[in-house]
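Attaching the record inline, Q. Sequence:
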Amino acid sequence: MEVEDWAASSDGTADSDVYLQDTDDEEIQYESGSFPKLQFRKNKSKACWDAEMGMAEVMEKKGRIWTTMGVVRRSKTYCFIEEILYLAQIGALVLLDAYDTVLSLKDICEKVAEGKNGCHWEAFEAYRHLKSLGYIVSRHGVPWTMKSVQSFSDSACLEGITESNEIADRKSEDELSIISLFKDLHINELRLGFDVYLPNSKFRKSCPGDPSFILCLTSGQPPLRAELENLEKKCNGIPLKFCHVDHGRGIFFSFDKVDLPVPP
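Structure, as predicted:
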């Protein structure tokens, strides 16, 4: 099993071009090879933090960014902490607490640092880099909408979907696959982190299709072969890529299987 170089590190040294996912949306501005700059915008989306869910409910949507961000339950849009921090850093979102007090960027960073909401700094670095390149990124195992569960290919092997469908008749959609899917998630273990789609102006949450690849977050020692094979089985044919973040620098890579010739 050999390592195949897949992408440059997330410091942007080899990022010659950056795809503008919403070219008509003035709220999204990127520079080649750099992190999206903080923009002082007049019209910002607003979201209210729900500590129990570990997510935020979007109260006001501005721009086209929500076409590819946030999950929809019962006609409400919720966003994860990595989405909140990313949008806050580019000045596209204002986060409020339960008392309508605006949370600062530092407050949001502290929520990520706590690692209690299904995301840690390493995962955020990977998410941020992919988003800055224009990829459509979502948490693996959480459908965009409940309508997309039927349209999403079985080969994606969404973790928790089977269990969620069994509960659907007796629990509300707000509870379904939001709290239960990652409330007890151990974020430090080797796991499938994000479903990643190529930039697509026609992307629809109700019919997202199969992701281009699934990103696995690694930490510490390189994964064992048995671990890799187990993860590949869960992906069922969808390419598996890896990201290792060290001191804020993300390295993206993948593995290929090779057969060594048998000596005569």
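The longest strand covers residues 249-256. The chain has a mean pLDDT of 75.

More tomorrow.
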